[in-house]
Amino acid sequence: MHELDTPTFRLAVAQFDQAAEAMDLDPNLRERLKLPQRSLVVSIPVRMDDGRVEVFTGYRVQHDSSRGPSKGGIRYHPDVNLGEVAALAMWMTWKCALADLPYGGAKGGVAVAPKRLSRGELQRLTRRYAAEILPLIGPEKDVPAPDVGTDAQVMAWIMDTYSQQVGYSVPGVVTGKPLSIGGSLGREEATGRGVVYVTLEALKYLNLDIRNTTVAIQGFGNVGSHTARIMHECGARVVAVSDVAGGIYHPKGLDIPALLTRYKDSGKSLSATKLGETLSNDELLQLDCTVLVPAALSEQITERNAGRLRCRILAEGANGPTTLEADRIVEDKGIFVIPDILANSGGVIVSYFEWVQDAQRFFWKATDIQDRLRDLMTSAFQRTLQFATTKHASMRMASLMSGIDKVAQAHLDRGLYP
Ligand code: GLU
Question: Which atom of ligand 1 is nearest the CA belonging to 352?
Answer without folding.
Answer: 8
